[in-house]
Amino acid sequence: MSLSNLASTLSSFINTDIQTAMPIMLAATGMVFSERAGLVNIGIEGVMLMGAFTGVAASFLLGSAWLSLLVVIIIGGILGLFFTFLVETARADQVVIGMAFNLLGLGLTTMLNRALFGMNTAPPKIESFTPLHIPVLSDLPFIGTAFFQHSSLTYIAFVLIPLVGFIVFKTNAGLNLRAVGEHPRAADTVGINVIKVRYIAGMVSCMFGAVGGAYLSMSQLNFFTENMTAGRGFIALAAVIFGKWSPWGVLGAALLFGAGNAVSYLIQASNSQIPGQLVLMVPYVLTLAALAGFVGRAVGPAASGKPYIKE
Amino acid sequence: MKRAKKWFSMVALLLIVALLAVGCGSSSTGGTSQDTGVKKLKVALLLPGPINDNGWDAVAYKGLKQAETELGVETAYRENVSASDMETAFRSFAQQKYDVIIGHGFQFGDAAKAVAKDFPNTKFVITSSNISQAPNLASMNVLSHQVGYLGGVYAALATKTKKIAFIGGQEIPPILDGAKGFAEGAKSVDPSVEVMSANTGSFDDVAKAKETAKAFIAKGADVVLGDANQAGLGVIDAAKGAGVYAIGYGDDQSNVAPETVIASGLQIYPVAITVMVKTIQDGKFEPKFYPMGIKEGAVGIALNKGLLSKLPAGIEEKINQVVDDFKSGKLTVGIPQ
After folding, report:
1. Using one digit for the tens of pLDDT, what is the confidence trace for B223-270?
2. Contact with chain A for residue B300, Cβ under 8 A
3. Which of A255, B137, B139, B336 lies most in the core, judged by the most C-beta atoms within 10 Å?
4. B308 touches chain A (CB under 8 A)
5. What integer pLDDT is reported at residue B12 of this predicted model?
6. Is the distance from CB of A16 to CB of A265 less than 8 angstroms?
7. Closest partner residue to B230 among A118, A225, A280, by Cβ?
8. pLDDT value of residue A253
9. What's the gap in Å between the CA of A98 and the closest CA on chain B?
């Protein structure tokens, strides 16, 4: 393989890696908030799916990608409100409610998709986030393909990483958030409103999750299909643990999983003799190996998954 | 507080049950029964996925509706039938005295075999399979091999880079047959064409199908065919983004991307199902394997006429010749012996 050939392969590899990592990274970044506050939302898959559908439906009805992103964020917030209400105020089991959200997401999006777009037709044309063309940068050889041919949503997502890191680890609000997840009673005694913090964290995390789903249907693709998230929410859950509940860790985990996928696409495209089933395992094996070998013990927030009951 | 909690759990539970019923297992009964004195044939269809997937399940549903209007039978269907529900689904339709129950996909075979013994008066038909069991279980297959073959011929005729690619979904017999036919078809036109192929392992993961197609396009493929039910839309999207051509699969998909989809390999399940139901209606049912190919009118190719001018001259005549050769029996590729 010649040098320029290698470089072009590498640049499209990085492009694919980023594309694949983005929905997972967005959802997982949001979950840094909720998990840090002691909420375990395994229903994020369902939230992503609802976000994916909401984005397409809103864009179809409103004719604007940015406006539909706003709708996605609002719907995400409502879902988060609903989730936190059920697990904190009504004190239902978090795993059960999470599972219910997954079923709700699949059922509701399937039904609404058919109601809105009908049966057996081509997906409708919608306004979506197309790759931005940045003067000079996008035209750079190799580097342009790898880093500067993404949609605006991708760049926003990257900016969010340090922002979330700052909020969670460097601000008072972040300290409160972490206190609530580690020891809610202690947090309560020093005057932190535990329930309020959890409500906010739950809503923010679902907003991120919904946007992650919308990334899939409006940036990586530009249509909705039933169950299109195909398990990405669960990978995002793993990414949070893998990333040790920090946005930078989450970024690394998502990019690693994306890289695993990109490798498997490359191997398949090279018409190698490696059996396809093995190739499809690559991203998962890579994630497992990294989790077992390099990350070390991951200890989550102590009050994870338990509703706070005031005496 | 405690009362409120109870209420919320109740409401939540009800909501979930309702949504499950809507999303995962809707069944409906169509066809009005008029009192004509003649007993109408009752036909039920079990589908592994949703009826609006633009592919595998949609075409079968269309077939059921066609049988209903053309042959005047009474129909019902159930979608998203998972492996664990198959036996129950067969049994419940059989108990409701359905005359014919069609399981759409080879994966329904084992369940049908088990249930068929208990209901000798009901005819069971499994699609994309070749099993049979006396006296009441038959199978039919719209020959995916031939669909792939036509797609391969057309792709090889249209390619400029002499590289074409096939992206399949799960690694199951009809997909593998399609891939095999695709390669054979392409090689029959030009042995020097490089045929690349991969399976994504999923019929849901559209994004994965798209990224896989992009990898092939980066390798130089300029005609790609996606054979992955609804995930196939991702392959078309990848081709559209890269400015290369795609070939649809299952149904005519040229409306998905009129500037990208040059043709679609058709599995004309409406024809296959109608032929099958007619056979049973006429009392000619046998517990055997019924191949449904180009000759039976169940396989074909729909050309996107709008793009013909951009493709090599004479391509339409060439593909029509191949179809005619199958119809006359000169070509018999993909018909199991």
Report:
1. 999 998 888 999 999 999 999 999 999 888 998 999 999 999 998 888
2. no
3. B139
4. no
5. 63
6. yes
7. A225
8. 92
9. 12
A 10 A CB-CB count for B212 gives 30
Domains of chain B: 40-142+270-292 (3.40.50.2300), 144-267+304-327 (3.40.50.2300)
B148-156 mean pLDDT:
96
The interface pTM score, or ipTM, of the predicted complex is 0.85
How many of the other CB atoms lie within 10 Å of CB of A29? 32
Nearest Cα of chain B lies from the Cα of A241 at a distance, in angstroms, of 24
Q: At what angle do helices A232-242 and A276-290 cross, to 10 degrees?
A: 30
A50 in a structural domain: yes
Q: What is the 3-state secondary structure (H, E, C) of B167-223?
A: EECCCCHHHHHHHHHHHHHHHHHCCCCEEEEEECCCCCCHHHHHHHHHHHHHCCCCE
Residue A49 placed within a domain: yes
User: Among A169, A240, A218, A227, which residue's Cα sits nearest to residue A65?
Assistant: A218
First-to-last alpha carbon distance for chain A, in angstroms, is 69
If phi > 0 it is left, if psi is from -120 to 50 it is alpha, else beta; for residue B47 that is: beta
Highest mean pLDDT among A163-177, B13-27, B266-280: A163-177
Q: How many domains does chain A have?
A: 1
Nearest Cα of chain A lies from the Cα of B265 at a distance, in angstroms, of 16
Task: Report yes or no on A38 lying in a domain.
Answer: yes
Query: Dihedrals φ, ψ of A151, to 5°?
Result: -80, 165
- A-chain residues near B200 (CB < 8 A): 280
**How many beta carbons lie within 10 A of that of residue A62, not counting itself?**
15
Q: Which residue type is seen at B97?
A: K
**Residue type for B300, please?**
G
**pLDDT higher than 60, residue A26:** yes
Is A254 domain-assigned?
no
Partner-chain contact A107 B171, CB within 8 Å: no
Tens digit of pLDDT for each residue in B257-316?
999 999 999 988 889 999 999 999 999 999 999 999 999 899 999 999 999 999 999 999
- Considering only CB atoms, B22 lies closest to which of A111, A225, A262, namely A111
- Nearest CB among B23, B61, B198 relative to A268 is that of B198
Q: Structural domain of residue A108, as residue ranges?
A: 22-130+151-245
Mutate to test the interface with A, among B17, B19, B62 (most CBs of A within 10 A): B19
Q: β-strand B163-168 against B137-142: which pairing, if any?
A: unpaired
pTM above 0.90, yes or no: no
- Would the CB atoms of B51 and A261 count as touching at under 8 Å? no
Distance CA A128, CA A151 (A): 9
Cβ-defined contact of B215 to A97 (cutoff 8 Å) = no
